């Protein structure tokens, strides 16, 4: 697909592209070490992949972790120091699960504004065992603290609510949800960076313990240690660097909801009221992808593959609909038709997804773009999506953070 | 020893029995309703801003969805680690007049098998937990017609 073809579809809003020169990860798992170590491994891998010396990087952007103490809140500087101070411009960003997209957005903005030629983006986390929990203290002004204090509503509780709602409204079944896990585990088994590398059967999903009705342990993603990094550059730098045809980031959506937000989202105890103002025609999640498509000047019909935030199996089906890969309520049918499986029309989570990786919050949105990069280069090995030209990622961070990246080649 | 009854969050609910209500606020300028309550600024971006007055929410609504917690949630949820964990049910309820969904725990004894999406439920006073001096009170959702 070339720019003219895109323009012919009404793509007047191509705002400029940046090159993905390098992608790197630290394997995901439970390693028991600090996030800085993981991030530096991923950063060095991305720099080596790009063939760029760290000392020639003009800016470093860190996606923060709230679990590493003060160094986690200033992740950009933490990684720069660990790699060796070299004077680069620094930023640190936080947007919960969307932090990685904010980091990519910051890097891209700096490149397009001419403030930096080459930017290193890094996200890494060392996750706790069990449920994510809020920061300590007595803090009734924090919705995240309140939902635990008043309701005991863990993240899987919200996933369970969404899943049950889909079953009631769209007729989804537990078997549909299990098939998402089966699909993603099969892909994850082929990914050297994934934490879980064993195929899973539908019977194994059904036999796992219920965590938050109707979802079982194998419907819900784990929390992991892990890291991902990207080296982004201007197209001009890429050409001078001997990469005339790199993977390019064409759009980064970091939108917020519009009032009234009528879908119950973590960590809220209630939705906005739609009594005074009619809600927009599309939900927040759908608006995240819509903004990315508009910025890239493409539509869902152009997408070769997608990486979506499968916090739960049921949520992956929701993303199919919110990305426009199928109509509302048709997610399970799209799955059963094989469209989103390897070899299908639009494979989803060819990396194995969160089902195979687990959540490493600041790294995940970056890891999604690493997978797109390898796929669009034709370098994804046994996971390769044939003829991949356009990839989209989708993700959502607590407190109203949209995250979607479109990469092309 | 008698314990003091204290709401887990101040000013989120009031009353007893049939008179029990969740308390939101309503903007005097645009009529937007908020729960949890907004007491300082109206969050409607198209509103110039009006006074926010306390507004009791509808007692009854329809189940939007439900789930349960089979494992002990982390703090600040309070539970006795010495006792076996007893799962509780969570219900998200759609209030027709307010056009919003409000989450809450189900009344004790209400399990996911007792519920269906679209079922009518009502808000009732409940107890979240008790400690030495205090009974911490909250709101519960309960199917209409179910006994207390």
Automatic annotation (TrEMBL), chain B:
Q: Which PANTHER family match?
A: BLR3430 PROTEIN
What lineage, starting at the top, does this entry show?
A: Bacteria, Bacillati, Actinomycetota, Actinomycetes, Kitasatosporales
Any matching Pfam family: zf-ChsH2
Name of this chain's protein:
Benzoylsuccinyl-CoA thiolase
Superkingdom is Bacteria
Span of domain ChsH2 rubredoxin-like zinc ribbon: 21-52
């Amino acid at each position: 697909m070339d720019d003219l073809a895109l323009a012919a579809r009404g793509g007047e809003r191509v705002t400029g592209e940046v090159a993905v020169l390098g992608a790197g990860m630290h394997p995901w798992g439970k390693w028991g070490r600090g996030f800085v170590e993981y991030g530096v491994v991923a950063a060095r891998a991305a720099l080596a992949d790009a063939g760029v010396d760290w000392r020639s990087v003009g800016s470093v952007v860190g996606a923060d972790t709230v679990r590493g103490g003060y160094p986690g809140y200033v992740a950009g500087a933490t990684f720069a120091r660990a790699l060796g101070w070299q004077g680069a411009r620094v930023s640190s960003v936080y947007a919960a699960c969307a932090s990685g997209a904010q980091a990519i957005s910051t890097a891209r903005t700096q490149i397009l504004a001419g403030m930096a030629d080459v930017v290193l983006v890094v996200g890494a986390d060392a996750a706790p065992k069990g449920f994510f929990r809020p920061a300590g203290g007595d803090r009734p002004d924090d919705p995240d603290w309140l939902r635990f204090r008043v309701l005991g509503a863990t993240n899987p509780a919200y996933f369970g609510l969404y899943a049950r709602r889909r079953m009631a409204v769209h007729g989804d079944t537990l078997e549909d949800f299990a098939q998402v896990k089966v699909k993603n585990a099969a892909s994850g088994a082929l990914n050297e960076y994934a934490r879980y590398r064993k195929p899973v059967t539908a019977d194994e999903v059904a036999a796992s313990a219920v965590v938050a009705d109707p979802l079982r342990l194998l419907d819900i993603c784990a929390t992991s240690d892990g890291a991902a990094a990207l080296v982004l550059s201007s197209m001009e730098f890429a050409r001078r660097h001997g990469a005339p045809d790199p993977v390019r980031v064409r759009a980064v959506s970091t939108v917020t909801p519009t009032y009234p937000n009528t879908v119950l989202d973590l960590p809220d105890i209630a939705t906005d009221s739609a009594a005074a103002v009619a809600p927009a025609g599309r939900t927040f999640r759908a608006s995240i992808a819509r903004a990315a498509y508009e910025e890239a000047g493409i539509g869902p019909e152009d997408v070769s593959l997608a990486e979506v935030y499968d916090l739960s199996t049921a949520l992956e089906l929701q993303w199919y609909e919110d990305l426009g890969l199928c109509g509302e309520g048709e997610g399970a049918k799209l799955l059963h038709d094989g469209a989103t499986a390897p070899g299908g029309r639009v494979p989803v989570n060819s990396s194995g997804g969160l089902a195979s990786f687990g959540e490493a919050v600041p790294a995940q949105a970056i890891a999604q773009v690493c997978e797109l990069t390898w796929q669009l280069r034709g370098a994804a090995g046994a996971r390769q999506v044939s003829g991949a030209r356009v990839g989209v990622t989708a993700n959502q961070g607590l407190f109203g953070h949209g995250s979607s990246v479109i990469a092309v080649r | 020893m008698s314990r003091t009854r204290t709401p887990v969050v101040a000013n989120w609910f009031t009353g007893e029995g049939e008179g029990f209500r969740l308390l939101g606020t309503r903007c005097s300028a645009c009529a937007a309703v908020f729960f949890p309550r907004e007491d300082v600024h109206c969050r409607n971006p198209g509103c110039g801003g009006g006074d926010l007055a306390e507004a009791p929410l509808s007692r009854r609504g329809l189940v939007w969805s439900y789930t349960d917690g089979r494992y002990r949630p982390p703090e600040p949820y309070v539970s006795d680690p010495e006792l076996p964990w007893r799962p509780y049910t969570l219900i998200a309820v759609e209030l027709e007049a307010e056009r919003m969904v409000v989450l809450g725990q189900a009344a004790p004894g209400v399990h996911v098998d007792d519920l269906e999406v679209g079922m009518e439920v009502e808000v009732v006073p409940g107890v979240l937990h008790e400690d030495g001096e205090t009974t911490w009170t909250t709101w519960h959702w309960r199917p209409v017609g179910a006994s207390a």
